[in-house]
Amino acid sequence: MIRFSRVINIGAATFLLLGALCAVLNYSSDNTEIKYSLVGSQEDVGFEGENDRSSHDVSSLPRCQQNMNAANILGFSFLSREIQDFLYYRHCRHFPMILDLPDKCGSSDEPEDIFLLIVIKSSPKNYERREVVRKTWAKERLHRGALIRRVFISGTSGTGFERERNNKILALEHREHNDILQWDFNESFFNLTLKQMLFLEWMERRCLHARFLLNGDDDVFAHTDNMVEYLQSLRHNNTSKHLFTGHLITDSNPVRWPRSKYFVPVQVHESDSYPPYCGGAGYLLSSYTALVIHIKSMSIPILPIDDVYMGMCLEAAQLVPESHPGVITFDHMIPSKQEDKFDPCYLKQQLLIHKFSPIDMYVTWHKLHSPRLQCNVTV
Ligand SMILES: *[C@@H]1O[C@H](CO)[C@@H](O)[C@H](O)[C@H]1NC(C)=O
Ligand SMILES: *[C@@H]1O[C@H](CO)[C@@H](O)[C@H](O)[C@H]1NC(C)=O
Ligand SMILES: *[C@@H]1O[C@H](CO)[C@@H](O)[C@H](O)[C@H]1NC(C)=O
Ligand SMILES: CC(=O)N[C@H]1CO[C@H](CO)[C@@H](O)[C@@H]1O
User: Fold this and answer.
1) How far apart are the CA of 238 and the centre of ligand 4, in A?
2) DSSP per residue, 116-142
3) Predicted confidence (pLDDT) per residue in 78-104, tens digit
4) Is residue 331 part of a domain?
5) Which of 76, 202, 303, 339 has the smallest CB count inside 10 Å?
6) Is residue 379 in some structural domain?
7) Residue 183 in contact with ligand 1 by CB distance below 6 A
């Protein structure tokens, strides 16, 4: 049951593609700065402030300073420490990399033809989740001729001894599995958008040739075989076209209740509505769309809710996210009581389900691939 329909604003898409191509062409492989020369007007893509970015050695940039003026925002002193902190550092877009993967996608002369790059947000402490994810749905492999690769994206967490230990575990995993990207910023719920943007910046430098991305959390069950088959079934699997699909959320609003995890005060987002977006547990996008979001994001102030922010960037590019019925991010979306999310026959027909413990992930992946699995054909 794979539905596929979308509306693309061809004009805007073509314009951005041209811009993106120019950005790519102007790349230099040494350590000089990238200068974007975008065809047409600068205001459409809206680079604010920094036009120049150091290409390979982001660590040479001075550390981003706290913006003390944030304290002058009306009502600032009534906001929580966390939100105040967010406002102080909202403008910071670059952080030094602690762990990089320069050859993850092949060398710049010989890029690998990666069909699906799995990008998983993971906090340093989630070691067990990463271990199971590696052995199951994010295993690097060929499926039906399509190359699948994996990266985890992470910041730092804790202080003192704990922070050292967290960095050490990621460094060990990096050495053993070649799948960790880490930046030197403090992990927090409010820094997830920053993490996402740092990844897009990395992708633009290192992995522009990957065709599709699965962007998700480390506690989901992603049926990556089905994803590859779905993506292969699209007409445009070889060229770059807009794609952004997942659990579509429309007509939603910022939570104004201060005790919610998702609380966003007017000082952070003035508008009382959010654009359509796909739930952040997991969505699929094309590298074309990732690049467009990356470019657009430079002129859109960061919103701490990362999935909504992706929706804001899409809206600014006049691209629409779409809904895929196989992406289940809330239990109540599971159709009937009989359908259990751990039932391999149910999972067999889905793309992604939230949420799974490492044990359930491991057991279910094996059940799903058992040659003895028999499902009544009801589809
Ligand atoms: C985000 O990370 C930066 C850099 O480590 C830190 O200064 C800031 O406090 C973090 N923001 C939040 C909201 O945790
Ligand atoms: C990160 O957080 C720790 C404490 O949680 C703090 O000491 C440190 O200054 C923060 N780093 C930045 C860059 O804000
Ligand atoms: C792309 O789609 C075509 C059919 O349109 C299919 O034959 C081909 O195998 C797909 N390519 C990849 C790499 O999946
Ligand atoms: C059918 C088709 O156009 N295949 C091309 C897809 O892209 C790879 C490289 O990215 C080419 O090698 C194929 O010929």
Assistant:
1) 6
2) EEEEEE--TT-HHHHHHHHHTTT--EE
3) 999 999 999 999 999 999 999 999 999
4) no
5) 339
6) no
7) no
